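Minimal example, chain plus flavin mononucleotide.
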Amino acid sequence: MASLSDKLFKRGSDFLGVKYPIICGAMTWVSEPKLVSVVSNAGGFGCLAGGNTPPEILKRQVEETKKLTKNPFGVNVITIAPAYRQHLELLPDLKLPYVIFAGGFPDKKEIQTAKDTGAKVICFASTDSIAKRMVRYGADAIMLEGMEAGGHVGHVSLVVLLQQVLFEINEVPVFVAGGLATGKLCAHMLLMGASGVQLGTRFAMAEECLAHPKFKQKFIQANARDAIATPQFDSRLPVVAVRALKNKGMEEFSKLQLSLLKQLEEGTVNRNEAQHKVEEYWMGALRKAVQDGDIDYGSLMAGQSVGLINKSETVELIIKDLTTGIETELQNVKKILD
Ligand SMILES: Cc1cc2nc3c(=O)[nH]c(=O)nc-3n(C[C@H](O)[C@H](O)[C@H](O)COP(=O)(O)O)c2cc1C
């Protein structure tokens, strides 16, 4: 007998070509071929992080991932990364089944460029207007991400975005992200119409994730309130906010913003260069934390869901816990309504 989950998984599973529409969101320095392939092999959907990776390395990572899994996976490109243009140029060569645009949002031509390579395109949206624009521009699916999420974030909570976007858009699948850590809540996202769910922070703590043990240990200890978003000091430097655990690195970022503002005033950098410097800072700081275990000055990007997770476990167990939690909750709901 088909489970209740199967019914609600159908749209997302068909779109992604996977058993479970449970996505391990791309995480720069974290989402490398091993983690991505383990997720896809366990029936979920892994995403390689384009980050600011030099094109030849990204190409090698895609080839490596293809060797490790026969199942579908996506590649995430960040529109505000200094390497973005190079990543776009690389797409025809990579022949990917799925491209995920994140960071900012792509223009219509960029979406078409990705689609022309045969890829299905998923676009991040952190506001209702971005979501609707991405659908108009030809996105095949939306990744609706609330401000609770880890990494680069918008300013609107998932609860509000669900009402503005998930309840309004039906022409393409809408996946949801930000603050999700339990099967129970994922079940309700599916009941509300989500085609699938994306988690980052919980997968960053997976045993197969190559992040430094000190990085994972910090996540295990952290409370939800420790994952804070960076402020924007001045509208002349419209940086995308980043949610991470508070540490000295977050203070360093404030100093960088002030210094860039001064340079903007003096005319020694323009806004575009300043945004690139900000991105370089984050990519470098995240590498320091993930690879070197510098938990003081590196960036500990994490969502508020960090407060819901207190152990490291295998990807297989994470996916099993989520799918079991989803089915159990759907059966509970059915009992209430019967
Ligand atoms: C350490 C870390 C790095 C991230 N890097 C990226 C990235 O490179 N590209 C991207 O689209 N999202 C990135 N994200 C966001 C995740 O893909 C995902 O959408 C988010 O973590 C979901 O929220 P959650 O952390 O509450 O599960 C990152 C998140 C974390 C925690």
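The domain at 4-211+308-337 is CATH 3.20.20.70 (TIM Barrel). The mean pLDDT is 96.
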